[in-house]
Specification:
Blueprint lengths: L18 H23 L19 H6 L4 H14 L7 E4 L3 E4 L1 H16 L1 E3 L6 E3 H4 L33
Antiparallel strand pairs: 1-2, 3-4
Helix pairs in contact: 1-3, 3-4
């Protein structure tokens, strides 16, 4: 599926040794940030993870939320970029101790492809509604039209303060 010019044999991280792994890592990071934004907008706590181990500074809930969208967004964008010439092997630099890095041109092209994919409409199976991947990760309070028809939790009328929490007994 991916030609030999790309040097991809298997998915590797930290550091990514080839362009495909570099784009998969970057795309996953973008998707985690989308999930963190959606969680914060829904007044949920991104560090409170259930599927991933909680670590200081890690939004452990976000990776679980974005897992469903990873193949739809990240994997699809990486394959499209590699197979259609959106990025080229020369757009990457490999430094042994830092791994494979995207050039500014490759990064810009990849970001544009990710944004197009996030806004692409698809039919949600059970409901048959048309929605975008970004619409799936936004609560109802952020709906802005046909790209965001997903129902979600109501946003609080005001930020919840620590003093608003009931006293623990």
């Amino acid at each position: 599926m991916i030609g030999g010019d790309w040097g991809f044999t298997a998915r590797e991280r930290r550091p990514p040794p080839d362009p495909a792994s570099a784009m998969l890592s970057f795309g996953s990071t973008l998707l985690v940030h989308e999930a963190v934004t959606a969680l914060a907008a829904a007044a949920l706590d991104p560090p409170a993870g259930f599927l991933h181990q909680a670590r200081w500074g890690r939004p452990s809930l976000a990776p679980g939320l974005m897992e469903e969208d990873r193949p739809l967004v990240v994997d699809a964008v990486v394959l499209r970029c590699l197979t259609t010439g959106i990025v080229r092997p020369g757009d990457f630099e490999t430094i042994p101790e830092h791994g494979c890095r995207m050039s500014p041109r490759a990064r810009q092209a990849f970001l544009a492809a990710c944004e197009r994919r996030m806004l692409t409409l698809f039919s949600h199976g059970p409901s048959a509604r048309r929605m975008s991947c970004r619409g799936r990760t936004r609560p109802a309070g952020q709906d802005t039209g046909p790209h965001h028809p997903r129902p979600g939790p109501a946003l609080p009328a005001r930020p919840v303060e620590v003093s608003d929490r009931p006293e623990e007994q």
